[in-house]
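Exercise 4. Each item below gives a protein and its sequence. For each, produce the structure-token representation.

Item: Probable dipeptidyl-aminopeptidase B (Sarocladium strictum).
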Amino acid sequence: MQSSPQSFEQSMLRRTQICPRWLPGSDAVFWYRRQVDSDKFRFVLVNCTQGNRIAAFNHEGLARELEKHTQQRIEPLKLPFWWINIDEDANWVRFQYDGKTWQYTEGAKLVEWSGPFDQGNFDLGCEEAASPWSREQSITTLTNQTAEKVEYYWISNDGFPQLYGAVQPGESKTVDSWIGHKWRLEDPISAKKVVCELKHRRGVAMVEEIPNGLTLSWDTDDKAEEVVSMMQKDGSSACDELFIKDYNVWARTFNGAEKQLTYDGVEDNGYKDVWLSPRGNHAVAFQCKPPASSPAFFVKSCPSDQFQPGLIKEQYPRPGDRVEYQRLRLFDLAKDQEVSVDDGLFQNAFALTHVGWSDDSQKYRFIFNERGHQRLRLLEVRTDGSVSTIIEEKSTTFIDYYQKLYYKLLHSTRELLWASEQDGWNHLYLFSLDDGTLINQVTKGPWVMRSVEHIDLENRQIWFAGLGMVPEQDPYYAHLACVAFDGSDLRIVTIGDGTHTWKWGPNRRFIIDSWSRVDCLPQTSVREARTGKEAVFLQSESIDAILEQQWTRPERFVAVGRDGTTNIYGIIIRPKNLDESQKYPVVEYIYAGPQRFNAPKAFKDLSNFRRIADQGFVVVCADGKGTNWRSKAFHDLCYKNLKDAGFLDRMAWICSAAESRPWMDLSRVGCYGGSTGGQNAAAAVIHHSDFYKAAVAFSGTHDNRLGQLLWNEMFMGYPIDASYEASSNIAHAPKLGGALMLVAGELDNNVDPVATMRLADALIKAGKDFDMFYVPGGSHYVDSMPFVQRKRDAFFRRHLQ
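Answer:
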């Protein structure tokens, strides 16, 4: 066992990772490697139907036998292989070593094996190349099953990798992308990487580590895709294939001849998508005028390939800029003519999203998201050009399009599953696909349907991830649940007072359920997917007596916010050598981005918090109103009001915590954050300097008019109005009343560093003192640089201690 709290948390994350290797043809037996120390492993065999978890083989006996054959020292828990073939009764195990395949039997006999050896089915990815042009959305959840942080990069249409974020061990992040696009997943420490091509509309990509790199395993629920396949074409089909060439739509006939269908496509108004009906007699194409050119310029002051600075130009659409205009065109291929389409129901579009043709080729369906994100429609175009609404969503604030949009067309039953917040919580609804009539609400209650996991069409059941389903638990805790299409028979499958992650077994018969809290180490079981009954308990972690005295458990704390009724949830990290007779300054890690919640829920590596706490600070982290994944009303506070950032809830929560913790000194409170958190941190000492005395703002969006179009218009609205000015730190710079340190990376193409520079300019003009650190070559994630962290810590020591 490692001795320090930081290495303890890291080692626990490694030990708790279970990558099940299901035996070929079995949905009940698997093996996995159980880490018992930093470089020691034990192979475990699990039989879910028998309820057994045993050693896969005699590790000591195998090591001794292998020593005899190789004349080398072999340690039982450092065996020189990581992959095995095994009999489900553990009568034999096979492995590869030194260019040979070996078999070890229960009788402690080791012999060479000349038969077949299954080396597993690993997705080693694809070549890194430019992402192709695509308009079909792909929503992929990246789950990190390695022991280290994994960064994910989008490979742009020009072939350049762009860092989008990082996934910590055991955690997941959702990526909104497009079918065919390529993403690089990379361990920044070992440089191991894998490049994947997205091939599914929805799926989970689990990132695993193998000796020679990273690999992927996918969970895509293909059985529920219900993609309309092309029917067998007969003589009535007008063409075999449609494609885009020279900005226009072309047809390829059955004899291979090519024919141009459109002639008005040009570079700045070309066709980009075309969708042929199943019977091949009609097609829909999107003719697109590009968005406004809105470049951002970044000066690379210290390039590695030259002494002179370099200039980088990237397109950076900002709120209010012209978005791409998509014109829907309908063609009757049999008559070789265009059919006029009434576009009255999809004017002023932010985006038109392809859904697909009906199986009878009579209707084409798509989603219309009106600019401003207050109106969303599922529309269908008939082959005569008429358009009708199947489902319409309206909001006086915003529709959480990029986080909560979910739909599933069930062609075989003429039904549609649709997610909506119409009753104040995100839930599933079942509609008739024929006329949009509501059949019934599927999920209901003061909790949130987070995502759909699996649809069993035959038995009409849905498995989904829900947040806040268990009363008295933290409302952000995730559980797996199952419900019938008609809303009956709601069952929570996972059990345990914490947030859960799970892996499905073959045929979705079993799940491997792991749960934890920030103050509770992970526990893992195999459960029956239909009932939640525990089949096998796999493992739990414990703390030795010595480390128990050194590791400071994070404290979960809940208190009411500004309204005196709504609970606010967060955590508190104390200094490791806390003296309760002393007073300690408080530092809040803040991120009030409305797309998610921020406070940790699962057991994780909190070394970033501990480094600050162990310098004599109390570190806190909570989620106020305006953040995501609670009720719609809780979320809506952010609308046109990002300067609020839940501060009144945060301050009430911190004050409540201090009532029972007199060692928290509320006369010395600071905060720090990056990106939107940087905007929030600066706002703290601008608008609430009576409470927050010091703040460090990394890569801040200090005026939402300078940020990226999509994110900022989602929460601040369109068209641009006075609310943007009201939420601008730049506009309110003269109000600065606390110590402020601004940090930005010169190459940040996520939040343009010009926002930080403009705030600095406004502060100078207002005669305000502040610190500033501009990082040469720095990206959006400058706050992860050790040098920058030292600057942050020194700033807090100077102003709060």
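Check: The two ends are 34 Å apart (CA to CA).
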